[in-house]
Design brief:
Elements (H helix, E strand, L loop, with lengths): L1 E2 L10 H7 L15 H21 L6 E4 L2 H16 L3 E5 L4 H12 L3 E5 L9 H7 L4 E5 L13 H11 L2 E5 L16 E5 L10 E5 L25 H16 L1 H22 L3 E3 L10 E6 L4 H10 L2 E2 L6 E2 L2 E2 L3 H5 L4 H5 L1 E5 L6 H20 L1
Parallel strand pairs: 1-11, 3-4, 3-5, 5-6, 6-7
Antiparallel strand pairs: 2-8, 7-8, 9-10, 10-14, 12-13
Helix pairs in contact: 1-7, 2-7, 3-4, 5-6, 8-12, 9-12
Length: 374
Amino acid sequence: MIYLDNAASTRLDDEVLTAMLPYLKENFGNAQSQHAAGRACANAISAARDKIAALAGCRADEVYFVSGGTEAGNTALKGVCATHKKGHLVLSSIEHASVYESASDMKKLGFDVTFVEPEKDGAVLAENIANAMRADTIFCAVMAANNETGVIQPVEEIGKICRERGVFFYTDCVQTAAYLPMPVRHADGMGFSAHKFYGPKGTGALILKKGSKVFRLISGGMQEMGFRGGTVNTAAIVGMAAAYEKTCLERDKTNAYIKGLRDAFLKRVLSEVEGTRLNGDLNKMLPSLANISFDGCDGENILFLLDLKGICVSTGAACSAGAVSPSDTLISMGCDLKSAKSSIRFSFGKHNTEAEVEEVVGALKFAVQKIRNN
């Protein structure tokens, strides 16, 4: 199998699994328990929190363990709304569904929501975010980088605007945690998921700046400093900390390697396959992603033919009632319907090789030609 869907999930590192195993077998206690077995897990979680905070550049008591980026975004947005009871929200139109749909939920409860479109290069302009704000704006969300195009967003400029206006700024860092430093200086809330940087699925973190007024989403016990009820997954949290530490230590080397693979792949596809276009500005992208449209093709058909060859990619489209719809992100960037439906997202990771790039280019050329000839 050749796996080029690392933006969806990554393979668990062997070192991370090794770090997790003791907490799946020997140290299996509940971290809330007062006996030795519980204290062993509580100490491991505390150490993981300290490690992630140090790597991210924030305080340990600003790190809350959650189930992943979806819960982080829901908690931040709905938690801010719960403290204000009414108000106006500003989001980019290219947010992850968890944030976008959370805003839609709040709209049904009486909150006003404004969605700001990106430019054709995939970036959301800070001035457009500023122009969308009102006197009653309480929350703003612009993801650190888009999950379909990989285009990095100007969170520093947007964060400054939000600070000046007293607006809570949340940025989804799910796609950037593996490749960029956490923007703790620019945002009030940040969320990320371990499985995007070779850690376990089902765990992540929400970083909330001290003093932020966010109401908890999950009530229960006193876990996570009383902010998020539910028995914590000690093994997954230990694994996330180990994965994030390795990611940060190896970031520069890994980024350069992945970018080399992505750029070599992109150069060949755009030059050797007619009717292809890169969606988004390459100069603003993460090193791992390439979203390409193929004229005269349906992305689902390309995906299917590559899958038959053992190659895993993504269309970036959502399925609803069995009907595949085009990417809202690409449509909001100005792509026409056919171009959006013909797109494929290729996302590279540290386990990919030059030989795999060669094989995928060949398989892709065959698939595109087959579809166009039918």
